[in-house]
Every structure is written in structure tokens, then in C-alpha cells.
Amino acid sequence: MNELPRAPLSVLVVEDLQDVAESVADLLTMSGHTVRVASCGADALHVALAEPPDVVLLDIGLPGMSGWEVARRLRTQSNGKQPVVVAVTGHGTDDDRLRSADAGIDLHLVKPADPATLTALLSRVHRLMASRDETGPSEAA
Description:
alpha/beta, disordered N terminus, Rossmann fold
């Protein structure tokens, strides 16, 4: 079994702070992933609809629409491909984590997220996707 799937992961970084978004995008690009960035919820939904990502790294405190609302809409607008949605946020209370789970967010990380944690997480998603490709969705579930 290959460690990484044939194609890189498609990652959508949703972050309103430009320097943070660029830093995360640079890190993930250097790790071999294809990265797109959106600075608000509306842009994130538009980008995800045009080209559904494998993974969404989602800030919760976005202008205009919370990351929780973005996650809910991502889940309903999907045309079959469901991304792994990871909150990367300063909102770190137990209530925040529950709200993330209720919104369909798969994992909740508190800022500042450790770069090694992010790259390890994406490597794990890579391996899971490769395993599903090799065994088929029914066997990998």
C-alpha cells in the first residue's frame, strides 16, 4: 500500500487574517498539497462549490458569517463529496467544541495550531483516502 494517494489533497483554508492564511497555505503547499484560501464564509462556500476540497481548515470567527454556519452550509451544499472539516480557531471552550460538532465539524483545534499537528493530520487524511481508493468506500467505512 502506498503511503500517499496519487494526487495531493485539495485544502481550503478559510481565515480572515491574511498573514495567518498565507502562513498556513505556504506550510501546506510545501507539504505537497493544493491549497486555496478564502477570507470570509461567502467566498469559502463559493470556492467549495466550484471545486469541492478534500479538507477545509476553518476559522470560526469570520466576518459576516460564523465558521459554524459555513460548516452547516458546506454539509448541505455538497454534491456527494464531503470534505473533512477542521475548525482552527481561538474559540476553545467546551461549548465551542459542542457547537462545532453540531455544525458538522469533524475536528476542533485551538489556535495557534501547531504546524506539525496540521501536517500530521493531513497525512492521516491522505492515508485514509488512499485506503478508501484501494478498498472501495464500503470496505473502508
